[in-house]
């Protein structure tokens, strides 16, 4: 299985887990348009190739310090001839966040160093977030005279309106411990060694779960609050019936009775 060719990302595939490393360490992995487009392509590839989980992290001790200022300056030049250049440039990152949110696999963010602006947004759309205690999370946009346009809905969904207002309207930064307190991340680690151990535990837990069952469960969870309850429960019952009669459902039941690992456990 050939991995996509990328310039701003490092990719490795191991036992159904795709490790994506944002690889622009000189700019603390700031999000260029090229990086956004490469991430879109990689997540499309992952969804089409039965990848069970994606681990997203940054090179050089930082997760992602937000948008690339140099790209923004280039867009300023384009805006002279294209009045919607800024809108198009901004919107593509929201498309990425939506794509990753709905990806039919488990997304794990491993956060060290800076997770600002777009990096904050990437944390918000992960299924599991593990962070160093000294990581720095923030929404600095308003202090720069701009707004957190594309990440705002995902931030509110993740941590709630009250916390989102405080962080966005004051332009605050918080550390990993504080991020866990408001529900932004799930686990906080003191150093690189414990961070890696937490990641391996998370991957071991995912390995115990049936891939199709995880895919359907994630889709169901994402519908909550967006569909009428009765129709959602009807759809869930249909999905349950399909799951219990599927090859995974049959295998899971037999493995439980026979007290052995299911055949999807590596």
TrEMBL record:
SUPFAM superfamilies membership: ClpP/crotonase
Pfam families, A to Z: ECH_1
CDD domains: crotonase-like (cd06558)
GO biological process, one term: isoprenoid catabolic process
Highest rank taxon of the organism: Bacteria
InterPro entries tied to this protein: ClpP/crotonase-like_dom_sf, Enoyl-CoA_hydra/iso, Enoyl-CoA_hydra_C, Enoyl-CoA_Hydratase/Isomerase
One term of GO molecular function: catalytic activity
Protein family (similarity comment): Belongs to the enoyl-CoA hydratase/isomerase family.
Name of protein: Isohexenylglutaconyl-CoA hydratase
Organism expressing this protein natively: Fluviicoccus keumensis
């Amino acid at each position: 299985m050939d991995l996509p060719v990328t310039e701003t990302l490092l990719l490795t595939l191991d036992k159904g887990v795709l490790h994506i490393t944002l690889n622009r360490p000189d700019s603390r992995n700031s999000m260029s348009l090229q990086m956004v487009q490469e991430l879109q392509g990689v997540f499309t590839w992952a969804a089409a190739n039965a990848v069970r989980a994606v681990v997203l992290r940054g090179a050089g001790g930082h997760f992602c310090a937000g948008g690339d200022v140099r790209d923004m300056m280039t867009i300023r030049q384009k805006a002279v001839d294209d009045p919607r250049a800024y809108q198009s440039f901004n919107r593509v990152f929201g498309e990425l966040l939506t794509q990753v949110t709905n990806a039919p696999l488990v997304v794990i963010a491993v956060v060290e160093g800076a997770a600002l602006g777009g990096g904050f947004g990437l944390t918000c759309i992960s299924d599991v977030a593990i962070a160093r205690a000294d990581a720095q999370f923030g929404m600095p946009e308003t202090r720069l005279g701009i707004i957190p346009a594309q990440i705002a809905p995902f931030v509110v969904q993740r941590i709630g309106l009250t916390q989102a207002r405080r962080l966005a309207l004051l332009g605050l930064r918080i550390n990993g411990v504080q991020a866990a307190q408001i529900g932004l991340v799930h686990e906080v680690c003191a150093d690189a060694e414990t961070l890696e151990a937490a990641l391996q535990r998370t991957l071991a837990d995912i390995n115990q779960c049936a891939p199709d069952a995880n895919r359907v469960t994630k889709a169901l969870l994402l519908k909550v609050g967006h569909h009428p309850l009765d129709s959602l429960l009807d759809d869930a019952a249909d999905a349950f019936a399909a799951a219990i009669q599927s090859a995974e459902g049959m295998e899971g039941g037999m493995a439980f009775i026979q007290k052995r690992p299911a055949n999807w456990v590596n």
